[in-house]
Records
---
Amino acid sequence: MLNLELKLSREGDDYVRKIQTSILISLLLGTVLTFSTGITAFAADYNDISDSVWYRTAVDFMTEESLMGGTGAGDFEPETPMSRAMLVTVLHRIEGSPEAGNGGFSDVPGGSYYASAVAWAEANRIVTGVDERRFSPFSLITREQFATILYRYAEAKSYDISAYTTLDGYTDSSEVSAYAKTAMHWMVGTQNLQGSGGKLLPSDPVTRAQAATMLMRFLDNISIEESAKPTASASLTEPEHPAATIPAQSEENTMINMNITVGNATFKAKMNDNETIRALITQMPMTVNMSELNGQEKYYLFQSGLPVASTEAPATIHSGEIMVWSSNSLVLFYNTFSNSYGGYTKLGYIEDISGLTAALGTGAVQVTFSIND
């Protein structure tokens, strides 16, 4: 891994970044390779997993159980984000990959590697989709979505879901979406999900390493007793469970839909409903010339800053994420890399990043942001 440090200027503002060059496989290709059959490798066999990393045991466990595998070229890609299709496929494998026929989502093509898994999860009320017709298989799954889907699976399997821990100790507990609150209380209560720096980070995408770890904890601590095969009516006949109404809600019902257009390509994005986004919406539709930086992002400087409640220093920035830096710089990332710099406010993410890098190109580019009504 080659690390370079450059000192650049953003129209007078000193802006220093660590640039970490790496060969990244596209998310779409990664998902297909990840869930191919015949998983036989172990963590020791992956080029990108050392003996000392905190998730090594989890990767070994998930690989040994043939639930997750490598992405190709001898890599596991632990920092690559998990997609919604990936998680549902793992749960389907845990269940023994039962046949499920065709589901009702318009964006899940028959014959795709995840089609049967999504149909099974839909039939058993484990997933509901991002709206009535779409599952959005290649969208990055957030921590609160991960908790919600795992909670529904545990409930459908009649596992003990009584664990409960208050979220008051986390500084961003108010950012947990209404549909995910019960699941997040349970997930933290079982210690399957642990915060970072006093935060839950509910809207952050889940990496493959994090997913492997949480799923291993789940299988070790929750799935102890074998129970009946899940049925669609399981949660509906147990009114004492406060989350019995969760399946009726969209997994992204507090997100704002946005279109990001580059040339002839339009990318659909999900944006957090916060004061920064609400201020940005007042300027839309908005067409701006975004400058290139470091071969991993495009940015645009506003004349005046946007309102920002808090900032953070995300350890990993993912391709397709949209953020504001230092209140006045709108940033669209098209590469995934490790980060150590603060001052970021997360706005949202592009659902399907296929073709994003090619559309943005290598230099400055005109980008239009608009609300998708």
---
Amino acid sequence: MARNASAEERSIEVPDAAGLKRVLPNEATRFAPLDERPLTGTFGAEDLAGGTVTLPAMSQAILINPATCPGCLH
């Protein structure tokens, strides 16, 4: 997970970003981190550009490795 806890938009560097994808939810999605299947609903994913994620103030992004979590987006 990438987090921006500042009051301004920031680009967050993601160590070891190769192979990671940023999860993009639709309107019917849900993230429940303590559930056995924390991501429910329909999600898409995009590659990380240059190993950074730009986040608005006080926000976070879910990052996954599809090779180690093949069912995470279903």
---
Amino acid sequence: MVITRRDCLAGLLLAGLSAGCGTTPATRAQRAVRSPRVIAPAPIKGRVGHRALWTGTEMLVWAGLTREDQAIQVRAVTDGAAYDPASDSWRRIADMPLSGREGMAAAWTGQSVLCWGGRAIGEREQLFGDGAAYDPQTNRWTSLAEAPIGARTGAAAAWTGREMVVWAGQGESTETHAKDGAAHDPATGSWRPIPPAPLPDFYEHAVVWTGQELVAFVGAFGDDRPAVIAAAYDPARGSWRKLPAAPVARGSGTPVWDGRRILLLATGPDMITGGEVNPFPTPLAPIGAYVPDTDSWTMLTRAPAIHNGSFTWTGRAAAFWNGDPTGGLAYIADQDRWVRLPAHDGSLRESPSSVWTGTELIVWGGNHSYGPTADGPLRPLNDGVALRPDLSGS
């Protein structure tokens, strides 16, 4: 079986990654002046569909899909590595005690990584319903108890301070996604089910934790354009509530919590119409912010269109960078303002991982983007860059 970029990147869309494909100049954005630095080469193969998390001192990268040199078929892997930006060096980490896979749900607890689910694709596709925890101090993995939900890929996850909540994802049905989920408590090693969300059938999703609620955004099927519909889950009450209709439409985007509002950001044109990829996409509606205290939406300055990707919160801004020749973007929340991040001569990439260290945005891996279509074999990258963006907005 030949796996194309469309096959694998479709799995990444389940986690809410953007599906834009064009680039246009940023008329309102200002360019940051600090150039990206190329980080040390990783000791693992390039990959897509992997997971990456920041521990406070290292960026952990593991799992995903890679492709051997000259091979057409992809391979799901179990290995990983940790990058230390202070020394610009990598170390290998122990292989996870699970089958190789992509599309895992994962969260950092402050002490360990929790990950669950995913799928393997290649000669045959297989969904997984198991998980594991990784302790970077001991470099050891331990298996998680069996979850009370079915196997799936692309489930969203968030750490609440006590539990990892896993929600949605694509199971055996390829038409719609699951609406149920489960919460894992690492202190007891146990899971508990959470009720299905009061949402219509949807084809993509993303979640964000506000400190009190897990807010889920979904792209629901529509006649013409996909609409954003949302609901919030309160772990203390064990119940969901519907949110007011969002005044935005999106193919996909990134919800980011800025401490007061959920910013629903997107960086490219709407790619999905009537459930099918549209090679001539129409522009996104303006992006917006949801304010939990008032249970209402406000509009934000529209983003300049740019290639696909997702945002990473820096503490003041939501930053995005994927090697696009025009550079990356950052939305400065307290100024409702966009700034340009500098370009780099390296490869344009689809769906790289990115983490914020407190001072740098580290971007690694992803699929080498070499054309406007979603066809062709995967070309996973194993390089990365670090940026120190100027987020003054001046």
